[in-house]
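Standup, Tuesday
Yesterday: got the pipeline producing structure tokens again.
Today: sanity-check two examples.
Blockers: none.

Example 1:
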Amino acid sequence: MTDVVPYVSRLFIYPIKSLDRVGIEAIAVLKSGALKRDREFAIFDQSDHFVNGKRNGRVHALRSKFDLETNLVSLRLQGTDRANVFHIEKERDALEGWLGEYFGFPVEVKQNRDTGFPDDTVSPGPTIISTATLEAIASWYPELDVEEVRLRFRTNIEISGVPAFWEDRLFTKAEDTVHFQIGEVQFMGINPCQRCVVITRDSQTGETYPNFQKTFVAQRRTTLPEWVEQSRFNHFYRLAINTRLPITEEGKTICIGNELRIYSS
């Protein structure tokens, strides 16, 4: 595989956890290793549980646009044109009231500038997948296109210039890590990400795709490259790479076009 040149082709952050993404050209790294402003806000219920797609399917039909410069968030329901705009800090009460009315129970929008609200608190770095992998997965489902698959998997960094499942080179045995670099930023590849019910649903409506998980597991098993560290697959419902970043990387920037270089595995 010495002839491939992996490079960052897309970057996404999700300012409000579980809501829609923002495409960006460059992003800084926080001290925690997370991307700045990624999952910076999250919606919680009265039991202090996340209101997300895993727990509440109504999340899928909620469309959001987030302006990173103004902190204005625009919300509307899928299939409607009426948008409700809130300043996420100055109009927090009004935002929580609108969301509470939509979900049918009181909610609180919390903010964490230091770490955000990652699913994996042990490995809170950006998730990585390749464009070719998304294309391969789309081919497994006649009714899905690549963009819909991209929306379902909600990764931060998309890599082009490589074949499908190339990113599986970015993890190894459980006690070890793969060290690599994107641009000037050092990474540690940890493990293939365990998926949840969210990827089985339409990203815009929440409608479940029949037998999505069964098909995914069967195809993932048969397409798993021979060189993959198979000990990391206690099951095959895994895709994209979880990462950690050393504290030394705080403040460094990841940009579209940056090349990815593996140092060890």
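Example 2:
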Amino acid sequence: MTLLVISPDYASHLLPLATLATAWRDAGDRVVVATGLATDPIVREFGLERYDLALGRGSNARVIRAEDQPAEESDSLRGFFDATRRGMVPTLAYQARERLTDLMWDPVDAGRRTLAAVDAIRPDAILVDHLAFSARLALQTAGVRYADVVLGHPSALPVAGEVYGYPPFWPAAFAPGEDELTELRALCERVSLRFTDEWNRTAAVLDPGASGTADAFREHGDLVLYNYPAELAREDGRMLPPHAFLGSTRREEAPDDQVERWLASVSDFAYVSFGSFLSVRGDVLRRVAEALAEIGMPAAIATGSTPPDELGPIPEGWLVRDYLPQVRLLASARLAVTHGGNNSVTEALGQAVPLLVLPFSTDQFAGAAAIERAGAGRALDPNTAGVPELAAALVAVRDSSNTALLDSIAREQSARPGPVLAYGLAGGLGTPTS
């Protein structure tokens, strides 16, 4: 069997997809990852083949910095980072306005190159990142069957009554005004119409006989795989398409002697990371570090694009680096502080680690609300939470989270790992063309 994995050229997207692919790799199957050049080292670390397929203008191998991107992407990132400092609604509005260039980049050419990859590789099964819209559009237009992997809260694939980019719910710490919300939803609806027009125009170029869609954001593959714990979605009240929950895709990491020595010397520590993008918010990382110091809790902090000295004085015995083996550290952490990214959330909950979520963008707000509702952690506004409020929340997460739920999620994911589930479901999907 041959598996084709299609991923944007970003580490945070490729890592869970490559981890799913290890089930095929370990079964002796051929695995080809169609992605860009920046993540080639990650593909090789997993022992997989790479087919060159760029699906966007930006990329990153581990940590993203605006200055390392092409000029247009750099400007877009700087605008996004500035928007996160103004709050939830300005950030979501900025992302909505960037949507066409962000998610539908050069769609005709990207679609044709995607179909060329399918023709060259002749896969028996295909896994595609849900956000690879141009690739998914091409596959659907050509009648190629694929499994659609949704990385994030399930609202990343909107259902009836929802509009992409407008959170169906958010944590209590956020209190946007009704006028703000009305304007945001109207903006998201206008963007959705423009995005759908572009989807339909591209489909017609790729296949003049292609049928149009009323909402491109609600389109999905033959099989929808949510990389998310089912336990957190059960009370959402959302009518999902036919799907399966994978729970988590905890990846293997190379041994790190410094980390192992540190783990042997510490207990009851917090793991802190804002991921590839939001690590630029050094002001928030500093307040988190000060709050942890205030409650006397050791920490391992992945600073990403924030220079470590921006955190202020670091207590002796803390582990602070730009990049850390997240899965390994979460295996021993007492709690985690995160922006609410999919990898951080699923890898923490898969190891029964409660969360303090400081969401900045996209589906992070809905995900933070689900965590709070289930008792798997707390959520605060990263722009307004001061050190005392952060310290109190850290103590609450550490001492009063729903341990029964966390243990249940961890047991389920241990018994039925995401890659095993994906292999059983997507392995027999096949990719016949019409």
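Quick observation on example 2: The mean pLDDT is 93. Residues 59 and 354 are 30 Å apart (CA to CA).
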